[in-house]
């Protein structure tokens, strides 16, 4: 059953991400109850709510790591279920954990993870590390990096992936004031270039940006 | 047809249907069991070679048949649940496993009891018994995997993958065990449940198989109802069912 | 520019090899385990080679099976725990192919040395030199099959805490036909009989596992990552 209003609505949002009536249970808990939102190119949506409200679950669900009980997730007008690989090629996901191998250097980590998606030159990689103020860490094994430095390497992976949709779970964990400013400028630049960002963070990100909105979970 | 399928797949409907079918299945199973037991234990003549020992096949052969077919039913149900995302199919698969495992244990126990007078030992590495034992391991693995997940849905899907891998493997196990055994000894003279048996012995066996299948269906109804109760314990329809009774 | 599938596979293999070089102890451990377990049997049964010769094919095969199981327990666990597997699942590349590439590399690193070590252990248990090719050949086909079956089990149990006993319980029954054909092939060879039959069956099982196994692995991995 699709009403006319819904058809016109979905036509108007084919360029971005649209989530409708998402329900998710985790064990006994009905975690997400009819969560709906739309995210257009150039927009940032920040999911806020207390601990245990389901922020991470919502992000993982939209990324396609968790199967929702019911509800529809659409990317560029097509259901996620039917074109998962195409959606994933345009998605960069940053989870709680950084997905870095302790035995590999920052550069090696980036080469193996970004290399799955596209070819990037060494210069590009080094420039991104420099942008995140960790150029000196390039050849150090991830084991010897501080928590904040590891987070920045993981963010470098997101930037280098060239994806248009970023899903970032607590991106500024462990970052100092400088780091947060640096990440915010990267996010703003991504929005400027027509990308979109879905994020969950305890502190507001890009609070005064015109394209920044928030979604509250209870 | 499809409408009926979807209706059946809804938990409240399946819960009610299982309750309605159960007594019919159970009583017809019990009546057939009594008839075929009389036919097998009293009417059938003693075997010229095995004497009265062959009569244990009236329990052994139906159990062995069901231990295999219940596994196939379980894998098919799990596959349906995995592909079409039907929760009821997962509930059926989960309910099948312990029943199938018990039939396997029964087949092993009766085979071993039969082996005592025939082989002179409680256990012989006979191909039938060996593949029955591996079948039991497959059931135990499935149940162990299910119980290691806290979340029912993940248990459902992980179990379904294992059941499907297992069901592909079952014919390979059967074949390999027969091949393995044929290298070590000639064709065994004392087979349990030989295909060429006389009709006064055969009809009680076929009837007993039917009785076992009906009994399986009856127990499955009970177990599926229990699974539905466990899975839907927070659903509103259950509250109204409980209030109605 | 998007990389092709072959490039992706090479990337996975290169990464695994580099990690193995930095963690070479984990590569050597299953091999040592294989040698130690094989040593147990003469101690437990008899030092007489003529007695050991009869059970040698079975002993080598069981030891190889256990060594393979032991090494597969940690096949996916580190990648799942540090989040790499999530990135793979979201990379837009076929997860089945990535997992297969990882499993094949793992076999090259742990299975192949075991295959090369096995004839020496066989000789120590009294097997004649003439069965070396059959022993190594059957183990090469067999351990590759064991790797794929074990990888399915590892993907199913990777989210379970202390899943190693569970892994053995799931995987060993599935692996029994491989053991039967592999050990029998060596046994037949020691008696100078034809071994083409069981070796063909081992090859058939390997092909079946190669064709269907990766899909089971990726389905299992997606469940485990939820």
Percent range for helical residues of chain C?
Answer: over 70%
Rg of chain B, alpha carbons? 20 Å
Shape of chain C: elongated
Order of helices and strands of chain B: HHHHHHHH
Termini Cα gap of chain C: 31 Å
Number of helices of chain C: 9
Question: Kindly state the mean pLDDT of chain C as a whole number?
Answer: 92
Count of the separate structural domains of chain B: 1
Helical proportion of chain B, percent range: over 70%
Low-pLDDT runs of 5+ residues of chain C are none
Question: What Rg of chain C, in angstroms, do the CA atoms define?
Answer: 18 Å
Class by alpha and beta content of chain B: mainly alpha
Strand-pairing-aware structural class of chain C? mainly alpha
Oligomeric grouping of the chains: heterotrimer
Number of domains of chain C: 1
Taken as a percent bin, the fraction of beta residues of chain C is under 5%
Order of helices and strands of chain C: HHHHHHHHH
Instruction: Name the shape of chain B in a single word.
Output: globular
Average of per-residue pLDDT values of chain B = 85
Q: List how many beta strands of chain B DSSP finds.
A: 0
Summarize the structure.
The complex is a heterotrimer of chains A (218), B (245) and C (226). Chain A is an alpha/beta fold and 218 residues long.
């Amino acid at each position: 059953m699709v009403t006319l209003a819904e058809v016109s609505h979905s036509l108007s949002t084919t360029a971005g991400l649209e989530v409708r009536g998402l329900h998710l249970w985790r064990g006994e808990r009905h975690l997400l109850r009819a969560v709906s939102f739309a995210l257009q190119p150039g927009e940032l949506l920040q999911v806020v709510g207390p601990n245990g409200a389901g922020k991470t679950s919502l992000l993982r669900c939209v990324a396609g790591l968790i199967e929702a009980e019911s509800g529809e997730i659409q990317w560029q007008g097509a259901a996620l279920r039917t074109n998962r690989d195409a959606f994933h090629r345009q998605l960069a996901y940053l989870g709680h954990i950084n997905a870095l191998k302790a035995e590999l250097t920052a550069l090696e980590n980036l080469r193996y993870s970004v290399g799955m998606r596209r070819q990037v030159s060494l210069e590009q990689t080094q420039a991104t590390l420099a942008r995140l103020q960790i150029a000196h860490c390039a050849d150090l094994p991830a084991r010897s990096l501080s928590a904040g430095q590891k987070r920045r390497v993981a963010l470098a992976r997101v930037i280098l992936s060239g994806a248009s949709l970023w899903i970032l779970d607590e991106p500024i964990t462990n970052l100092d004031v400088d780091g947060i400013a640096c990440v915010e400028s990267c996010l703003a630049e991504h929005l400027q270039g027509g990308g979109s960002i879905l994020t969950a963070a305890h502190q507001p990100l890009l609070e005064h940006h015109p394209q920044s909105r928030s979604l509250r979970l209870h | 047809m499809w409408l009926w399928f979807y209706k059946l797949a809804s938990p409240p409907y399946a819960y009610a249907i299982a309750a309605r079918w159960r007594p019919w299945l159970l009583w017809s199973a019990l009546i057939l069991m009594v008839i075929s037991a009389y036919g097998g234990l009293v009417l059938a003549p003693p075997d010229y070679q095995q004497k009265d020992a062959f009569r244990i096949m009236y329990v052994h052969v139906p159990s062995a048949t069901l231990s295999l077919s219940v596994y196939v039913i379980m894998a098919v149900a799990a596959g349906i649940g995995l592909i079409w995302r039907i929760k009821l199919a997962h509930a059926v698969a989960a309910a099948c496993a312990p029943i199938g495992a018990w039939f396997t244990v029964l087949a092993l126990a009766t085979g071993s009891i039969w082996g005592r007078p025939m082989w002179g030992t409680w256990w012989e590495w006979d191909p039938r018994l060996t593949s029955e034992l591996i079948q039991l391991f497959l059931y135990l693995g499935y149940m162990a995997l299910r119980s290691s997940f806290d979340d029912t849905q993940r248990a459902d899907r992980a179990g379904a993958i294992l059941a499907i891998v297992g069901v592909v493997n079952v014919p390979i196990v059967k074949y390999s065990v027969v091949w393995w055994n044929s290298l070590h000894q000639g064709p065994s003279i004392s087979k349990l449940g030989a295909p060429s048996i006389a009709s006064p012995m055969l009809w009680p066996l076929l009837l007993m198989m039917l009785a076992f299948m009906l009994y399986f269906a009856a127990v499955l109804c009970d177990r599926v109802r229990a699974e539905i109760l466990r899975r839907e314990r927070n659903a509103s329809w259950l509250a109204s069912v409980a209030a109605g009774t | 520019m998007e990389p092709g599938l072959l490039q992706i596979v090479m990337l996975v293999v290169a990464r695994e090899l580099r990690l193995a070089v930095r963690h070479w102890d984990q590569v050597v451990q299953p091999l040592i385990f294989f040698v130690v377990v094989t040593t147990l049997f003469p101690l437990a049964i008899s030092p007489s080679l003529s007695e050991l010769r009869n059970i040698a094919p079975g002993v080598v095969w069981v030891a190889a099976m256990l060594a393979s199981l032991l090494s597969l327990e940690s096949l996916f666990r580190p990648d799942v725990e540090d989040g790499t597997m999530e990135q793979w699942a979201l990379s837009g590349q076929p997860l089945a192919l990535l997992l297969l590439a990882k499993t094949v590399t793992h076999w090259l690193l742990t299975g192949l040395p075991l295959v090369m070590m096995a004839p020496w252990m066989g000789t120590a248990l009294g097997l004649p030199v003439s069965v070396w090719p059959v022993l190594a050949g059957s183990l090469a086909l067999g351990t590759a099959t064991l790797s794929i079956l074990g990888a399915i089990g590892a993907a199913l149990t990777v989210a379970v805490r202390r899943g190693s006993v569970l892994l053995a319980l799931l995987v060993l029954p599935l692996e029994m036909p491989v053991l039967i054909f592999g050990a029998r092939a060596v046994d037949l060879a020691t008696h100078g009989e034809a071994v083409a039959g069981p070796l063909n069956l081992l090859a058939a099982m390997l092909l079946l596992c190669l064709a269907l196994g990766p899909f089971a692995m990726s389905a299992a991995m997606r469940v485990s990552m939820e």
